[in-house]
Amino acid sequence: MKKLAITAALFASLGLVSTTAYSKETFWPDGYKIYTGIGYGQYSFQWDDRENDTSFDDDSSMLKAYVGTKINPYWSFELAYENFDEASDIDNSAEVDGISLSTRLSAPLNEHFSVYAKGGWLEWDADVHADIPAIGRVSSSIDGGDWLYGAGVEFHLNENVNMRLEYTRYELENNIDPDMDVAAISVEYQF
């Protein structure tokens, strides 16, 4: 699934960029923009495995790459690949990555600063390992799809470059019920 999703995201971003070069002036309304960016963040991973009576809480880092379309100054859509580094404690570990599609509603406060709220869907894969005293090492690969939501601030450094600070909450529904809270900084380029 990972390779297919990454390939789809790459082709989608290349298609959006080439479409912009051809049709931005003739087809799209004023204010429409294509953007791409990269981000780095720290996340808190909270995991509760009810079936095996084990849990842990750890912090780790994440990387993301994204491409989006800004329909107007207030509304945009975004496709992202998100890679969460391994979170672990003495007996447990989990590594999650996924593809998300979200929408952002922005409120420009002035020409250099805006705040926004976002919501969307994350398709994810996870590799989970647990050392359970009565059983031994238990490993599994699981996947799913779940909602995400967040908020942030965006700084417009110049006409083409923006910087974002954002918080996102991922509530992954599965029998391990992981919750991930991410604080991230991103740099993006608008075409």
Task: Describe what this molecule looks like in 3D.
By secondary structure, the chain is mainly β. The chain is built from 1 helix and 8 strands. The protein has an 8-stranded antiparallel β-barrel. A hairpin with a 3-residue loop joins strand 5 and strand 6. It starts with a helix and ends with a strand.
Name its key features:
single chain; mainly beta; 8 strands; 12% helix
What's the story with the biggest beta sheet? Answer: 8 strands, antiparallel, barrel
Indicate the low-confidence ranges by residue numbers.
Answer: 6-11, 14-28
**What series of H and E elements makes up the topology?**
HEEEEEEEE
Number of strands: 8
Rounded to the nearest angstrom, the radius of gyration is 19 Å
Strand proportion, as a percent range, falls in over 45%
Mean pLDDT: 82
- What's the helix count? 1
Overall geometry comes to elongated
The proportion of residues forming helix, as a percent range, comes to 10-25%
Please identify the structural class as seen in this structure.
mainly beta
Give the neighbour order of strands across the main sheet: 1-2-3-4-5-6-7-8
First-residue to last-residue Cα separation = 30 Å
Give me a quick take on this structure.
This protein has one helix spanning 2-23, and strands at 33-49, 54-72, 75-88, 92-108, 113-132, 136-156, 161-171, 179-190.
Write the layout of secondary structure elements.
Layout: H1 2-23, E1 33-49, E2 54-72, E3 75-88, E4 92-108, E5 113-132, E6 136-156, E7 161-171, E8 179-190
Antiparallel strand pairs: 1-2, 1-8, 2-3, 3-4, 4-5, 5-6, 6-7, 7-8
